[in-house]
Task: inverse folding
């Protein structure tokens, strides 16, 4: 399992790709709305693109992998791969949870 904190990022702005050897998470934090009250300006977030690749300690079955997103936390789950299965890879759809 891989967990990634992505608070403030829309799941639609995240791309998750998985192979039997690892997972790559890419996305972009869009500009937040500016808070201007009583002559003050506040902006405390990092903006821009990000990418992170995590290698698995053992091969996984990417066909059975799932990605969920809840309260700013992306979670990717993938069971161990059957040793008889060939290598594979795919893009995961992210399921937003309530």
Result:
């Amino acid at each position: 399992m891989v967990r990634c904190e992505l608070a403030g990022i829309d799941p639609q702005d995240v791309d998750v790709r998985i192979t039997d050897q690892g997972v790559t998470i890419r996305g972009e934090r869009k500009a937040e709305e500016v808070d201007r009250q009583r002559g003050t300006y506040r902006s405390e977030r990092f903006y821009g693109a990000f990418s992170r690749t995590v290698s698995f300690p053992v091969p996984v079955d990417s066909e059975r992998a799932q990605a969920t997103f809840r309260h700013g936390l992306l979670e990717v789950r993938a069971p161990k791969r059957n040793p008889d299965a060939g290598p594979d890879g795919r893009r995961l759809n992210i399921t937003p949870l309530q």
